[in-house]
Input
Amino acid sequence: MTLTRTLFISKRIIKQIIKDPRSLVMIFISPVVVMGLIGANFNKNQAALNFIAPALIGTFVLFFTFILTGISFLRERSEGTLDRLLTTPVKRADIMLGYSLSFFLFAVIQSTILLFFSIFVLDITYEGQIWHIFLIVILLTIVAVNLGVLVSTFAKNEFQVIQFIPLLLAPQIFLSGVIQPVGNLPDILQKISNLLPLTYGVKGLRSIMVEGSDISGIIPEISVLIGFTFVFITLATLTLKKI
Amino acid sequence: MKDKSQNIVANIDNISFSYGKKLIFKSFSLIIPKGLSLGILGGNGSGKTTLMKLLANLEKPKSGSIKIFDTKSISKVQSKIGYMPQQNSLYNDLSVFDNVDFFASMYGIHDKKARSKAIHTTLNTVGLWDRKKDPISILSGGMQRRVSLACALVHQPDFILLDEPTVGLDPDVRILFWDYFKKLTNKGTTLFITSHTMDDAMHCDRLIFVKNGHIIAEDTPEKLMSATGNPNATLEDSFIYFNSKGSINDSN
Output
């Protein structure tokens, strides 16, 4: 693995996204619109807003990174650029890390915009430190990038990538405690919830933002998320054929 | 022995390969000597592109071995290999310059000055320096083909795999390409080229005809034509002649 190649891959992906204004709107504007709509819905219920806003930051990171990686990687596969890339001395780790790094940059900007919007417009309670939030964001980004790469193996076109949303993302939104606490779910769903990365992302973000936890308070969530990243990186890397 | 291996760029030794149940190669061997252009000619599904992919390290033989620059670990010598796939395989939303710049960096030209110089030289070679800022998506098919070639040449590889390099090119650009390929082989670079067109194949120093994953003939274009026994035979006649005869082993 070479850091230089990783950075070049990141730079290329960032350039591609910047050249596509629709992607930029999707990453930065649409989450604010959704957050604004939720704020309008719960404007008389500050407690509910405090509960949902941190969870939505994690959800958006997972959602948009997954879609963008899935589609970008599908294009890499179908347009032959991935094969071409694999005939150069690049390593699989360079590619995965390059993708993660570039999407992390967008995820951080997206999270920061959402955080400021939540604090200053929606007036949510905020206790924690921003870099603790970024720590959760980077882990969720890595999970989402690798999930996107995995899905791109099974999808034949962009439409099929979108079809994975109800299969892979919707259960996470409904079972990871985004809308209501996991404890309110039936036992079987609580068990499934324990297998979903977003559950730990949401728990961690809530712990930082609402309870003001420092790093020691979110060690269990971070540890599990790191475990998920290793599993997903391994699975996704296996789909990149490099002999 | 050492001298002999130095004159061989690739040694494909008794390989077999299949896609699922479809057998592409069985006991296939080929030696690619240094410093010449070796063309591979065959019908659709004869295994040309698969052979390219095996040499480019995108596929692995089920048995047998492939040595490039005297090593079986092709990934260790990838910086010395250039690959131009049949599909253009470019980033359509990026500019000509950005595409070549990206692949130059992937091939290990990390110094910015060296990279800029390499890109300038390569884009001049393919006649696209003036279009360097244009996104790939607005270029004609032939121009995209030229960018694709630039991406394969930018690191000055010693061994270049060209899968249908001249498809979609205007005749004058095609001639320029072949002049340039000649210059490369004169300098010791080895080219392995697949082609459908006999015009292109005529430019190669040596040719192999393949059918159903077997080499049915291998020689210079001139000797392949004269082997038909007809003094007026074209390369196409020669291809049909050998194709009807079957494999080399059969003819023996």
Q: What stands out?
A: The mean pLDDT of chain A is 89.
